[in-house]
Protein 1
Amino acid sequence: MSSAVSEDWIARPGGAIGGRLQVPGDKSISHRAVMFSALADGVCEISNFLTGADCRATAAAMQAMGVRIDTLSERHLRVHGVGMRGLKPPTTTLDLGNSGTSMRLFCGLLAGQGFELTLTGDESLSKRPMRRVTDPLSQMGARFSTTEAGTAPLTIHAAAELSALDYVMPMASAQVKSAVLLAGLYADGCTAVTEPKVTRDHTERMLRGFGYAVDREGSRVSLSGGGQLRASNIEVPGDLSSAAFFFVAAAIQPGATIRIDNVGINPTRVGVLEVLRRMGAQVEISAQRESMGEPVATVSVTGAPLKGIEIDEDLVALAIDELPVLFVAAACAEGETVVSGAEELRVKESDRVATMADGLQAVGIEAEARPDGIRIVGGQIRGGEINSHGDHRIAMSFAVAAQRSIEPIVLRDCANVATSFPGFLECATQAGLRVEPLA
Ligand SMILES: O=C(O)C1=C[C@@H](OP(=O)(O)O)[C@@H](O)[C@H](O)C1
Ligand SMILES: C=C(OP(=O)(O)O)C(=O)O
């Protein structure tokens, strides 16, 4: 699904950062919207759907399993739900491109369908660990084949019956939690997941929005199998993870303000705003409302001289995808920022501890990669060349960093930005960043 052609960008220093923006729909919510509406009893409309390659891969996989999806306009889908048992075996392997969320959630959702299918992905996804889902799902009676390393290509074999599981999850992962809960929809009895840290809870909120009872007691989430999903329309909020690039762009420019309307502020996702506040930026939230159980608001961030802080594992889980760009904020802050409890960053689209430490060093910042995080000493960004290793969030993070650089930053391998943020370059230009394809 992701482009095989490498795409390079150049980001130049300066630029008048500011203004009022909209960002595309939330990636996590768009995946779940298309998955759950495909299994609902009836027709669902999804507005502000993210058209990034990751979510298109999820929609294409559902179509390959017999779900009719009409594109009413670019970001507006009508999904004709087939009911919990209505999916058909696909006739080909399902290519999920760069998307870890698609692969892991599908493992759970498809484990109990009673047919066999194979999931593949691009080079990055083919390296990512899948045993974290296949292990607990196998305990429920699901059967998988993977490579010896536990990676994709991954075949889900037809399983007779799934049994419920009470799972104490060893890592803080919303994808693993969701995979087990989604398999639990097809299991006999009550399936529960206890999470070591709070992780994003979009699965729980959206299942409830579709009329499915999900309970939470402390850190334990549970549901009973055998129910139905009631068709419901979904308006996807703007993606806070995409907005984060512009919030950091403002935060590192004293006096600059970026305001983004209609952005999701689910409490399990707002670590980025808390980190920026603690570093000294001003964060304001207004016009708050709810959309299918998800809080949405206008968020504005105003820059100030930032200071380095400690970011521990509680905050890490609430800001997991925003950490790369927060490392750029740390590079522009006075003093040291130390991030710990972030080993999960090493198993994303790239090893984000290593790619960020290498990139920061390449542009003149002192950064020390640690097994579970990073230490960054704020300083002057000098410019140079970084390799994003095909990781969308790394490319966008250094596009933001260039603003405070002396020389331009050349960004290698940026095509995968389209997996999560189609239109990033236009949006960045609107926000005042000076980034464009390298001629
Ligand atoms: O559930 C989700 O939608 C996601 C969960 C997180 O991954 P982990 O569950 O691996 O932490 C996050 O990094 C990813 O971008 C989206
Ligand atoms: C980690 C990410 O996504 P995924 O796991 O779905 O590939 C991300 O978008 O930063």
Note: The longest helix spans residues 27-38.
Protein 2
Amino acid sequence: MNRSALTVPPPGTPEPRPHPDALIGEKLGPHYAKCFGCGPDHPTGLHLEAVSHDGLSVTAEFTVGDVHQGAPGLAHGGVLATAMDEALGMVVWLLRKPYVTGRLETDYLRPVPVGTTLHITTRCTGVVGRKAYLEAEARLDAPDGPVAVRGAALFIEVPVAHFTEHGDGVGGMTPDREVNP
Ligand SMILES: CCCCCCCC/C=C\CCCCCCCC(=O)SCCNC(=O)CCNC(=O)[C@H](O)C(C)(C)COP(=O)(O)OP(=O)(O)OC[C@H]1O[C@@H](n2cnc3c(N)ncnc32)[C@H](O)[C@@H]1OP(=O)(O)O
């Protein structure tokens, strides 16, 4: 993968561990019902479903629908980047601190037809201060299918005020905008 140094942890960075209260080996619910990536109430969203694993890793599935096309019959590259971003974001939830994407890198290796189920694996490779280093891989139609997309990211820890000040004021904390940290 054509990976920048910005998404690789510095040499000697220790293996990151999930928060002791993180749910490991379980299905992860959506963090927000209207999220474009994981929200069940989003009409055309990705409806990503994920399971957490030890070693600060998540596997997620996303089935490409008609509403996700770029070229006829093929997934839009930006939609695929969104799927990677969302699955990467689910890994940092296991640290139980709020993070946002600072940098996202994607390599597109194979076209992804409508109807494909992408099997996405993401992993945190290191945490240094506010910076979490992450990588991802999406395979076609099976956990061991051909690799279609690779990704890497730098997520930055932010205070909850990031969402209350820059979001819609309540930061998703009213009953109809429930957030599952
Ligand atoms: C009761 C609990 C309630 C919880 C509430 C949670 C509610 C929300 C629910 C769920 C959220 C999850 C949603 C998941 C969705 C998927 C994730 C997304 O798509 S997130 C949206 C897209 N991303 C943004 O909108 C970020 C916009 N950018 C910013 O806000 C800032 O630029 C930010 C926060 C990223 C950094 O700004 P600074 O001022 O805080 O910090 P600085 O000093 O600039 O950076 C800190 C360090 O990071 C490096 N850095 C920052 N950006 C970088 C970049 N692009 N590339 C490389 N390094 C970067 C800097 O060089 C610096 O490094 P050095 O400490 O000096 O070593």
Note: Confidence is low (pLDDT under 50) at residues 169-178.
Protein 3
Amino acid sequence: MIRAHHAAAVRAAEEPLLAAGEPLMASAAFALATHVVAELRARGRVAGSVVLLVVGGGNNGGDALFAGTHLVRRGCQVHAALVSGDVHPQGLAAARAAGVVVHRVLDDADPAAAVLALARRCGVWVDAVTGIGARGPLRDPAAAVVAALAQERAGWPQEPVVVAVDVPSGIGVDDGTVEGPVLPADVTVTMGTAKPGLLLPPASGLAGRVEVVELGLDALAAEPPAACSLTAADVADLWPVPGPDDHKYTRGVLGLAAGSQAYPGAAALAAAGALRTGLGMVRYLGPEVPAALVRTRHPEVVTVPGRVQAWVLGSGVGPEDAARTHELYEHLRAALDARQPVVLDAGALTLLHEDDHLPDLPATAVLTPHAGELAALLTARGEETGREEVTAAPARHARLAAEITGATVLLKGPTTVVAAPDGPLYAQHDATPWLATAGAGDVLAGVLGALLAAYGDLLAAGTADGGGLPASIAAVAALVDGRAARLAAGLPPEARAGVPSWTGVRGRSGAPGWTGPVPAGGPALTGVPIAAGDVAAALPAALRTVLA
Ligand SMILES: NC(=O)C1=CN([C@@H]2O[C@H](COP(=O)(O)OP(=O)(O)OC[C@H]3O[C@@H](n4cnc5c(N)ncnc54)[C@H](O)[C@@H]3O)[C@@H](O)[C@H]2O)[C@@H](O)CC1
Ligand SMILES: Nc1ncnc2c1ncn2[C@@H]1O[C@H](COP(=O)(O)OP(=O)(O)O)[C@@H](O)[C@H]1O
Ligand SMILES: [K+]
């Protein structure tokens, strides 16, 4: 699990160490320099490379200035552009003494142009404008400098190498929002622990590879993270594996009330996802057209009522289908009365648009909206919200919906965000954009429902919030579903797997003095198109990569 903590928690954990005289900044700076050197070495050579430090007014800039002293010793030519009038004094003195060339760009009529002219000669840009001390989006002059660098880099996406210190300056460190200019990083070297903004979208998309520098912030180990991302090892911990005494009822029975006369396919896709996740039985309840399709495609599925341990409700049900929506309502009431976990997808989400006919939901109810559905739900419940607002701040809106309804919310999108009314946020970036295809959500609902069914008796017997278990189950479902999508698309199972491959050193045309690294190129893996059924079919292969 990658754990991320809020800025305030990091400060609190640093306090006793700083009071005891621990040289945290020296450690941070050395680690930063080591990572810059590693990036340079991976791309060619270290000595002779030209490095730009973009230095702000706090300790984040201090990290970079001290790192600069190490880089000079490794033979780099290091320039520091000071974008604040008041930078870390000891860091500045040490940098000067070591031979870092200091540029007071604020004395220039156009600081952004001055930094840009300098940057064009440098193969590595170290973004040390702000870290956890940032308040709001970047302000000028730092904002103008960062905007100019970001624009320059957009034209040369593979050069220079951008290394962000702690976080890419300008992101919402605690919530992952991006409300002003940010320079996208190739690597973020983050101090002590990850920060939520490195995991949560949209800011997570600007962080590149994240390297966590161990600073011995022991106090954080005892605290629940503010946000986290599960990894393959967490799947192995949570995935239900049958023992010798298990039978189909102990393995879990999923009640599936999905699909309709108009959208029968959703029933078959959700069943496919559930069956390949592993459970005792899928029991399908619905009209004859989808029921017949499910029986044909999946003869294992039972289509008569009976005992279940969890439900998937609503995939493939349109809000105009009043009769089917009423059936969903009856299933939901019964599930809540029996304390059974339940997935509310698509048409079942509209049941929550009014709050006077249902009790507050428990966290064992998991909502699976995409951004549009979440915006509609929030608006119906008195929080006027558009789809774009959800996309700009997914974590905040998922949490809000969880607080309003009491349920756990799995918000679908490029990064899946899971929020319960309290506890950590989960951010899973395991899939591929090829997954954005009709029916993919139905498969995911089936995967999630099957996992909840396997944990059904435990969740029904436990506390109403399931002790945070429903949120971690939802994150695991997104992870495995995302991996299956990647494998189906012909991609390696891990998203963001390691450093992109770069080799060689060449000069940058029109950039005299350029001595930095340049990527060898070669097309990135794009993968191939997939249909939702392919994702379900790839689930066993995806599980082989995590349960072996
Ligand atoms: N406390 C410590 O000794 C350690 C701190 N560390 C580093 O120090 C950083 C935190 O340092 P600080 O608390 O000094 O804060 P930062 O350096 O993150 O930010 C504070 C500076 O940014 C400016 N600033 C704030 N908001 C701004 C905005 N919106 N636009 C433009 N400028 C803005 C402030 O005026 C101030 O100069 C961490 O992110 C980490 O990089 C590490 O060296 C580990 C040890
Ligand atoms: N850009 C993207 N990158 C990766 N995954 C995506 C992206 N956009 C959507 N997804 C995923 O694709 C699936 C689409 O589900 P959904 O929108 O419910 O489709 P449907 O309702 O047709 O089944 C979800 O798992 C979602 O998280
Ligand atoms: K930074």
Note: The CA atoms of residues 57 and 87 lie 4 Å apart.
Protein 4
Amino acid sequence: MSDPLLTVRDFSVVYDVEPPVEAVKHVTLELQRGEILGLAGESGCGKTTLAYGVQRLLRAPAVITSGSVVFHDASGEHVDLNALDVEQMRRFRWDKISMVFQGAMNALNPVTTIGAQLDDVFLVHRPDMSRLERRAACAKLLDIVAVGRERLRAYPHELSGGMRQRVMIAMALALRPQLMVMDEPTTALDVLVQREILRQISQLRHEFGFSVIFITHDLPLLLEISDRIAVMRAGEIVELAPARQLWEHPQHEYTRKLLASFPRLTGERGVLVR
Ligand SMILES: Nc1ncnc2c1ncn2[C@@H]1O[C@H](COP(=O)(O)OP(=O)(O)OP(=O)(O)O)[C@@H](O)[C@H]1O
């Protein structure tokens, strides 16, 4: 049954430079609640512009030239994101949508414990929580992402890259968003750690019911984690299909080309994490 979280219609973004770059062209898609949607396509095809654009995270020279983005809130309200002012959008983003950036683990403050950094998220966005409630919530978050509450007092340099990235995921989870946008979240990590983290993201979305937009160049990885995959080329979505269908019966010639460019895919397929 269809239960959309985000409806994107005829969405276009132009970088107003000379000559102008039509980075996203008339994209229409519906993201389902609890779904992991992979955005695939070669560098420069517009994945990041699309994912940032729907959250209105783009700055000049980017201009949204057409389209609408409607967020179907769990409360039953339908929010037209284009109609929100800057402050409303900022609050909305923190509460409902969170982001994990590539290399986010390096964004942790090196001189503050990870517990204190998690605590800050609640301090700023949930001012009504008591100190004890915040501490309990931070400990629970570290347990959820399998870093473990005993690391609350650890400094970032005392953790491995994979653990630091898990801490970033914990931060992104903190306010229980309905949508998580992940931009190459595991690219800097080795393959085994990557797999572990992906498996966990997949489990967590079942547990918490959030949707994920997952951006990466790594199509084999997307095939493992995504429910559906949107293949982008030159600003357009050329194919959008369930992961397995896309792999077994790619419809668009570009999808076939993209699949063929990953030798890993011609061998035995990795273990499905879904
Ligand atoms: N600030 C900018 N000014 C002008 N053009 C830009 C700007 N940012 C991005 N572009 C152009 O917009 C197009 C889409 O870029 P975008 O970063 O969205 O692609 P991408 O698929 O996410 O690429 P990558 O995987 O390399 O991050 C590209 O042609 C890029 O050169």
Note: The first helix runs from residue 47 to 53.
